[in-house]
Design a protein that fits this description.
Layout (H helix, E strand, L loop, with lengths): L1 H6 L6 E5 L6 H13 L3 E5 L13 E3 L8 H6 L4 E2 L2 H9 L20 E4 L4 H13 L3 E2 L9 E3 L6 H9 L4 E3 L1 H10 L14 H4 L42 E4 L7 H13 L3 E2 L8 E3 L5 H9 L3 E3 L1 H10 L26 E5 L3 H13 L3 E3 L8 E4 L5 H9 L2 E3 L1 H10 L30 H8 L6 H20 L10 H5 L15 H5 L26 H29 L23 H27 L5 E5 L9 H13 L2 E3 L8 E4 L6 H7 L4 E4 L1 H9 L13 H7 L3 H11 L8 E5 L6 H10 L3 E5 L29 E5 L4 H4 L2 H10 L3 E5 L1 H10 L12 H5 L1
Parallel strand pairs: 1-2, 1-3, 3-4, 5-6, 5-7, 7-8, 9-10, 9-11, 11-12, 13-14, 13-15, 15-16, 17-18, 17-19, 19-20, 21-22, 21-23, 23-24
Pfam family, one: BRCT
Protein name: DNA repair protein Rtt107
GO biological process, one term: DNA double-strand break attachment to nuclear envelope
């Protein structure tokens, strides 16, 4: 039975294997055999063939995140994993957590399995948390899967085991993890490796080795000057196969170079097009123009010539957002960077050229020498003459991450961030240059917001022009378009001038004019289209308008009078006894009017007398689970009127209620929401007694008592009311809570509970934007007995344990980790217990774990 389960481990999986330079066809075929042996379905994708429909697969195996369908897979919540995921799942006889095998370079510890030796518990917890957050794994024991042991010496038992068994595990100091997490990048662990770590033995003045970096090869400039070479006849150049490439007009290149580039595209099996609607790729120089904006909104690949050359040179697809200088630049640079003078130190080779060009693209000036006029010095480490001089002159010293991330966020980031002033000992930060990606959300918000629509219409007009040009080139005349007005009335001449847009006051003017008068008639002379109206005709028009206003004055006055009446103009019409009512010329109607008016006056007098006899509202009561009204709307309406006559107004809004009636402590939305406003809670028997005795009873004689439920939930209603008064609807102030749409109980119910307690609730469908970290209101004095152990920056997801919910968990965790926060997937009991007790509570049973998702 166990063997059958192993063989059918992947029976519900359909996996796509993406071939690349790191994962060749032979390796893909070996994975194919493994998947089929364990009951799974498999498809192998090799570029440049079109990617299969993404929704067909449950997993995608790829050694890199740099393939065309990666973003689509993330949007569809389909996990993308490294090949190691398959081996690990088979070895464990269960599907491994895909987050730990994510090829996204932002999870820079994704292939790290760490165990800890003899280090302090605080350091141990911090390292484990950081590794897991950045995609790694923790193992409590030394196994063959462990890649790193964190220790202070070689004398620990784990270090001796690794040496004795020759496991090949790297033994590093805790300083390595600390420096990686501070920078947000994975740096070389060699200076931190035991038994003889370089950071402990090297003198401060010892030179630091130069770093080589393959991330910026072919991506150090946004405006390349030489064409890529394609002389290798043995290479099958097919990176652009099936792609329609459009070259934008803002490239600023001559006809000879343009012809050469088009020839390169043809050699790569691509097609050059001038129709943006048919293009898959747009090559342009600047982030401007309708072509750039529209192609970006249509999710086409937009890059510059450097990106195109990189594709052809390497014959492999890469995203234009992967490298900063593969994307079009802006003419003016980052706001605030103009006028800055920046110098570089300790960067060499292509890394230096890359940073020089990036400084220029940001709008600043790059100086080869450091002067007192310089504003910033970007350095790879702190040991150089420039660094010494910068400290003496007061020049700001930062690493390249400040420049790259300012370019990504498109704003000048503060240099006070410790990440930008951290320089690990014995490490040249040139090794991590070029790892920062562009943020599509920032690009969309700043350069091609979705609200503009004029660009798309221009593209469609361009498409019509291209069709007409093609027809003319084939000897055919394009069809002539005829306006609707000309088709309907050929004899009527159409004004040539375009009517300008009018403001609000101009649009309101025709409402007072004769409805038969054309709106544009006062702009046109008799029989003339563009003649300026004469002074006489203008004066006559003004006099006519004044006369119309005077004639409409009685109706306007009556309208204003009716607006002040209860019910307004829309409901009820005019009163029958209104002195301004125009009588209909009908004898029967006139003879009936005196009697009807008298009846109306009597009804009005009775209504006023009845209204005056009603007592004022002393109790605003919210009612939940009153069984006598269930399924009997007539009785409910009748009883509500009787209660109102007693001074009790039944309200639905929890914010307005002063009292809450319920048969016991309930978990209904009405009960939970009302608790946040600290109402007096009475038993529903109070309603029954008030109706039977037909008088307003004292609600304090009917206070709800439910000791059994109070014992079960661990709080008393009296204590919850006192805390609610103190909280003042700020219990969840600053909490970021997401909720699944199809959760049991309904999203709207949980949203209302969160919002009445001061929190923020967002519907999660896999694409919610996570921005604000949790920041408790300092003005609220909430005493938490069972304090929530979560730290600032936690983001909560209300979820069930159904399979349709579980499949959204990896996407939620990924999105939260990407913005530097901690995800918490909890069941609804967490929120309801907090809202009912009016205090922050935490139990481990509230939170779902990966094991819950697997089960």
């Amino acid at each position: 039975m166990a063997d059958d389960q192993v063989e059918q481990l992947l029976r519900q999986c359909k996996i796509c294997i993406v071939c690349s330079k790191e994962l060749n066809e032979d390796s893909a075929m070996q994975l194919d055999i493994l998947i089929k042996d364990h009951g799974g379905e498999v498809a192998i994708h090799k570029a440049p063939a079109p990617f299969p429909p993404i929704h067909e697969f449950t997993h995608i195996i790829s050694s890199t995140a740099d393939f065309p369908a990666y973003q689509s897979a993330c949007d569809a919540l389909i996990p993308v994993v490294k090949p190691q995921w398959l081996q690990t799942s088979i070895a464990r006889h269960k599907l491994a957590n895909p987050r730990q095998f994510n090829p996204d370079p932002r999870f820079f510890f994704s292939d790290v399995v760490v165990t800890c030796g003899d280090i302090p518990e605080g350091d141990k917890d911090a390292i484990i948390g950081g590794v897991i957050a950045m995609g790694g794994l923790y193992s409590p024991r030394v196994t063959s899967q462990v890649t790193h042991l964190v220790d202070l010496s070689m004398d620990s038992d784990k270090a001796k085991t690794i040496v004795a068994k020759k496991l090949g595990t790297k033994i590093v100091l805790p300083h390595w993890f600390d420096d990686c997490l501070k920078l947000g990048r994975r740096i070389d662990e060699r200076p931190y490796t035991l038994p003889n770590p370089e950071i402990l033995r090297a003198s401060p003045n010892a030179p630091i080795r130069k770093a080589e970096n393959a991330d910026i090869v072919g991506a150090s400039t946004s405006n390349p000057t030489t064409l890529p070479t394609t002389k290798d006849q043995n290479r099958n150049l097919n990176v652009l196969e099936g792609k329609n490439v459009m070259l934008a007009s803002n490239l600023g290149i001559g006809s000879h170079l343009l012809a050469s580039i088009e020839d390169l595209i043809h050699q790569a099996n691509g097609v050059v097009t001038k129709d943006l609607t048919k293009a898959n790729m747009l090559i342009c120089r600047y982030r401007e123009g309708f072509e750039y904006r529209t192609a970006s909104r249509w999710n086409k690949d937009v890059g510059n010539l450097s990106w195109l050359y990189h594709l052809i040179t390497h014959n492999a697809w890469t995203s234009p957002l992967r490298r900063l200088l593969h994307y079009p630049i802006h003419r003016d640079g980052i706001p605030g960077f103009k006028g800055l003078q920046i110098s570089l130190s300790n960067y060499a080779g292509e890394a230096r050229a890359y940073l020089e060009n990036l400084i220029q693209a940001a709008g600043a000036e790059c100086t080869k020498t450091l002067r007192q006029e310089n504003t910033h010095l970007i350095t790879a480490h702190g040991g150089s003459d420039k660094c010494t001089a910068a400290k003496e002159w007061g020049v700001q010293i930062v690493n390249h991450l400040w420049l790259e991330e300012s370019y990504t966020k498109w704003k000048m980031l503060p240099v006070s961030d410790p990440r930008y002033t951290h320089f690990p000992r014995r490490t040249n930060l040139g090794e991590v240059v070029g790892q920062t990606r562009l943020d599509r959300n920032v690009l969309e918000q700043i350069f091609f917001p979705a609200e503009a629509s004029t660009d798309e219409s221009r593209v469609m007009r361009q498409k019509d022009q291209n069709i007409a040009a093609n027809l003319e080139s084939n000897g055919m005349s394009p069809p002539k378009k005829q306006s609707k007005s000309a088709a309907q009335s050929p004899s009527v001449s159409t004004p040539k001038a375009v009517t300008p847009h009018t403001n609000k006051s101009a649009r309101k003017t025709p409402l007072l004019a004769d409805a038969k008068t054309p709106l544009g008639s006062r702009f046109l002379a008799d029989g003339k289209e563009n003649a300026t109206p004469s002074t006489t005709s203008s004066r006559k028009s003004k006099e006519a308008a004044v006369a119309r206003i005077h004639s409409a004055a009685p109706d306007i006055a009556l309208y204003e009078k009716e607006k002040k009446r209860v019910g307004g103009v829309i409901y009820g019409g005019r009163r029958k006894n209104d002195a301004d009512l125009v009588s209909i010329n009908n004898k029967k109607r006139r003879s009936a009017e005196p009697e009807e008016d008298a009846d109306a006056e009597d009804d009005k007098t009775d209504a006023k007398r009845q209204k005056a006899s009603k007592p004022s509202v002393s109790i605003r009561l919210s009612i939940t689970s009153y069984q006598k009204w269930v399924g009997n709307m007539k009785k409910e309406d009748s009883d509500k009127r009787k209660l109102r006559d007693l001074g009790i107004a039944v309200v639905q809004d929890a914010k307005k209620c002063t009292h809450l009636a319920a048969p016991s402590i309930l978990r209904t939305p009405k009960f939970v929401n009302a608790l946040a406003y600290a109402p007096v809670i009475v038993n529903v028997e109070y309603i029954t007694q008030c109706l039977e005795k037909n008088k307003l009873l004292d609600p304090t004689d009917y206070i709800l008592v439910d000791e059994s439920t109070e014992k079960k939930v661990g709080f008393t209603l009296a204590a919850a009311r006192e805390r609610a008064k103190k909280n003042q609807n700020k219990l969840l102030r600053g909490y970021k809570i997401c909720c699944l749409e199809n959760i049991r109980g309904g999203f709207e119910a949980f949203k209302s509970i969160v919002e009445v307690n001061g929190g923020e609730c967002t519907l999660f469908r896999g694409r919610v934007s996570i921005k604000d970290s949790r920041n408790r209101d300092s003005s609220s004095d909430i005493e938490d007995q069972n304090e929530d152990p979560s730290k600032e920056g936690d983001v909560f997801l209300l979820s069930g344990d159904e399979s349709e919910h579980v499949k959204l968990w990896p996407r939620f965790r990924q999105m939260v980790f990407e913005v530097g926060k901690t995800p918490r997937i909890v069941n609804v009991n967490w929120l309801i217990d907090i809202a009912m007790s009016q205090e922050i509570r935490w139990k481990d049973e509230y939170e779902y774990t990966d094991e819950d998702g697997a089960n």
